[in-house]
Amino acid sequence: MVSNTVAFCADNKIYNAKSITLPNAMQVVVVENPRTPAVTHMVWYRIGGADEIQGESGLAHYLEHLMFKGTDLVAPGDFSKKVKSWGGNDNAFTSWDFTAYFQTVPKDKLESVMIMEADRMRGLNFADADALTERDVVVQERRQRTDSNPSAQLGEAMRAALFPNHPYSRPIIGWDNELQLLNPTAARAFYKKYYAPKNAVLVVSGDVDAKDVFEQAAIIYGKIENEGALGRPKWSSVPRVYGEVIVAHKHESIEQPQWRKLYRAPGVGQDYKKSLTLAIADNIIGGSTGRLYQSLVVDKQLASSAGLHYSGIGVADGTVSVGVTPLDGITMEQISNAVENVLSDVAQNGVTEDEVKKSIAKLQDESVYERDSLTGPAMMLGYQLISGLELDKIEGWANELEQVTVQDVQDVVNDYLVSDASNYHAVTGHLLPKDK
Amino acid sequence: MSSQIQAQDRVLDIAEHISPRGIKFWHVEDKSLPIITMHFAFKGAGSINDPMGKIGLGQLVSNTIDEGAAERDANAFQEALQDHAIDLSFGNNRDNFTGKIKTLKRHSDLAFELLRDAIHVPRFDGEAVNRMRQANIMRVKSSLAKPDWLAARLMNDVYFGDHPYALNSGGTISGLNAITADDMRQFVTRNFVRETLRIATAGDMSADDMGEVIDNVFADLPLGEPAPTFDEVVPPTQSIKKAFKTNSPQSVVLMTWPTFTKDDPDYYALRVMNHLLGGGGFSSYLMDEIREKKGLTYGIYSNPDFMDYSNMIMIQSAMEPQNIAAMTSAIETILNDMKANPTDESLLSDAKNYLMGSLPLRFSTTLSLSGAAIRMQLDGRPIDALDQWNNNIMAVDVDDVMRVANRVFTSVNPTVTIIAGAIPDDGEFELVEELNGIK
Fold it and tell me: Which residue from B minimizes the CA distance to A305?
């Protein structure tokens, strides 16, 4: 194992990104990667599903769709068509914390996509009729992704129970009853209020010179004004909730039961050190050779799969999710107890020095893969910057892992992941066949 | 368009090499990151060979072969991979048994030792075989809640008819239950041979060093025989419409037509025609008409699918059942128009520019380099096929697109239409009570 820790240089940065902030407060970040004559251009807005007001769930995502419905310069639907005609691909996605738009194009088209993306930052001008047709599309998106998918339905219900009184409880696509009522006027208002350079981060990754990109961005994005735009509204925090919540979803398409549990846990924006610790706990407990799989699948033969995953990149709380596929004849209660046993064992007896060292080495090794992509770095950098991490923290993530101790791992499990923990907030989910 | 299409420039610097012990491989050396990748395949060793009664054999081998080899039991083997961030996986499709590995350069000795062990001395310990068997059975059962999986299963069953392609390449529950460790050992002995081996590598290693690695991993395999051959698929001669009902609010819709092979002179015209029809996202006719104008669906796409014994083109979408008729008639209008009228020159030019300009975008990861090189070998393409791509696309004109639309869509009615999920009440579809290829 010695070789594992030697090769990772102490001053190693994951992306080697360069950053400036324009006078209008828009941040511009560049990752130079000359491997392919192409570039990924991404604009991230610090505005997402969590910023909607009560009754308008799904609005941020609906607006993301409407961003393709035209400006004074670009006709409805033409944005993607132009990008395609240049040999590029484009798309957009919405989460609770952000809405992001990206194009991957041959490098000589970078300026062209910058001009179009800057144009729709303040210049969106869609027709009501197009917006109403697009609402039908978004309803169909919900039908496809959630309403036809029992597993997604359970996930939606568990999240709603895990984050009471917090905007993370809302589905990004929107609750069905509210989605049907979204309208062009509400979308325009949301857009005017929040889409502005001070709420935006530009990330460019590819065969570019950072200095050139900064100059282009200063000319193209730098001239946009923030006039009238507001920052992200303050979110409520999650209250202490009493009682053990179990969501049991019985669905007639289900033949194979599934057991799940979702825990609230600190996000990177809330507690950087704990997020590092949870990443290591994830590796020791989850994963194909992790303690959970070894216990439930290999040793006790209760399940055919068992995993634990920490998702911590976010402005507010992250989650730890556990998923288990029980073998025939094994009850949900047996699974629940077996999972709790694995976590209690860590909480009481800790993990080994060797487990922590190996996890750090592995995560450091994997961080080298982060650069092995054009779009990947733009995705990861944008996502983490939106979460509130400074660039040096993002770059130094793999080095910082070395600060995590055996005691830290035991503490974080003891504090968040066992049912008598001081910060235990969890929801259990059962995906079950319908009684026949 | 851009500089990389100049005649003397190559899209990818793929070169053919022969290892010291005589194994041919294609290599893309790229020192930009300390990463090495390898794709390999045993051509013709796919699930098409699964014995009746043991459907799922190839699948189960692909899942179990990295669960212990030589001195390492399953846990030790998986730990060696995990602890060194080595991504090793095996796959099994209808035609081929495949594998790929990604490793940091500094762990490459261990990575290729593990690969060598997995291929030569897999353990297939009882515990690991049963664990993987259970995981596969649970995967099959979990799939029953997924309308797109159900639709694809029914499409394969109906379209391929009595050809072995109709069988469930992921395994049936009874088939998976019947497979023994000896079956798996025989599979390895029969199929892991140099005659059918194809290798593509990429990343931070010279071709000479890679040749040594390849010899170490593969050269001791027996020479073996070419894989058995099968008849071509004969698609149904009359249009078939079948449905599998679930309580979803939407139906997944799949429509399939047979087409010509990837070696046909019209292959590139077909790629262009497909891009215009439904391969080009928002710039395609299907997306524009059925999502953008009518709001009937979140997505609708077309894709050609070329296999060793079947070639087809498929349109897929999902929508509420009362809108299927409107979609079907919109598709008919689009296809009739493509058959009867020349494509607008500027749309054709946009489509060709995309297909040419997007080529380098496909090669931004190390795995994508070796992935492209293995695909070309399996498809029987020459080593400069990517370099010829732009010329071939450039040459396609409006007449070619129209001719191909007429060749493929001899009837605008699909040969097979499958829906899974909600069923329209117009009686258009024959209801299937129970799917084949599950139990």
Answer: B135
Q: What DSSP assignment string belongs to A101-137?
A: EEEEEEGGGHHHHHHHHHHHHH-B---HHHHHHHHHH
Task: Determine contact, residues B181/B61, Cβ cutoff 8 Å.
Answer: no
Same-domain check for residues A161 and A263 = no
User: Where residue A417 sits, what CATH number does that domain have?
Assistant: 3.30.830.10
| Residue A146 touches partner B, C-beta closer than 8 Å | no
Query: How many alpha carbons fall within 13 Å on the CB side of residue B49?
Result: 24
- Taking an 8 Å cut-off on Cβ atoms, the answer to whether A255 and B107 are in contact is no
Give me A351's structure tokens.
């993990």
Query: pTM higher than 0.80 for the full model?
Result: yes
Q: pLDDT value at position A11?
A: 56
Contact of A151 with A78, CB cutoff 8 Å: no
Size of interface A-B (CB pairs under 8 A): 192
Say if A100 falls within a structural domain. Answer: yes
The answer to whether A358 contacts chain B (CB < 8 Å) is yes
Two tokens, residue B123: 């353990």
Cβ within 8 Å of residue A207, ≥6 positions away: A32, A33, A34, A35, A36, A37, A38, A39, A107
What's the pLDDT tens digit per position in B42-101? 999 999 999 999 999 999 999 999 999 999 999 999 999 999 999 999 999 999 999 999
Q: What is the rounded distance in angstroms from the CA atom of residue B140 to the CA atom of residue B136?
A: 6
Q: Give per-residue pLDDT as tens, B94-137.
A: 999 999 999 999 999 999 999 999 999 999 999 999 999 999 99
Residue B2 pLDDT more than 50? no
Q: What is the pLDDT of residue A243?
A: 85
Quote the distance between the C-alpha of residue B404 and its chain's center. 23
**Contact in structure between B218 and B199 (CB atoms under 8 Å):** yes
Range of the domain at A309: 245-433
Residues A281 and A161 in one domain: no
The domains located in chain B, with CATH, are 3-146+159-218 (3.30.830.10), 240-431 (3.30.830.10)
Cα distance from B284 to chain A (closest Cα, Å)? 9
Instruction: Give pLDDT < 70 ranges for chain A.
Output: 1-11, 436
Q: How confident is the model over B322-379, as pLDDT tens digits? A: 999 999 999 999 999 999 999 999 999 999 999 999 998 999 999 999 999 999 999 9
Dihedral over Cα of B117, B123, B124, B125: its sign: negative
Tell me how many domains chain A contains. Answer: 2
pLDDT at A4: 36
Instruction: Say if residue A202 is in the same domain as residue A89.
Output: yes
From A41, A85, A417, select the one nearest A264 (Cα to Cα). Answer: A417
Q: Are residues A162 and A272 in the same domain?
A: no
Say if residue A55 is in the same domain as residue A145.
yes
Distance between CA atoms of residues B143 and B156, nearest Å? 15
**Parallel/antiparallel/unpaired status of strands B97-104 and B311-319:** unpaired
Looking at chain B, the whole-number percentage of residues with pLDDT higher than 70 is 98
Residue that terminates a domain, selected from A204, A220, A236: A220
Residue of A32, A52, A56, A64 marked active site: A64
Q: Do A285 and A428 share a domain, yes or no?
A: yes
pLDDT band for position B8 (cuts 50, 70, 90): low
Give the residue from B365, B419, B435 with the most A CB atoms within 10 Å of its CB, the best one to mutate. B365
- Token code pair at residue A86: 């240049």
Select from A220, A235, A269 the last residue of a domain. A220
Is A410 part of any domain?
yes
Same domain, A212 and A269: no
For β-strands B87-92 and B97-104, DSSP reports them as: antiparallel
CA angle A114, A118, A120 (to 5 degrees): 125
Average pLDDT score over chain B: 96
Q: Confirm whether A232 is domain-assigned.
A: no
Residue B10 clears pLDDT 90, i.e. is over it: no
A7 within a domain of the structure (yes/no): no
Same domain, A200 and A264: no
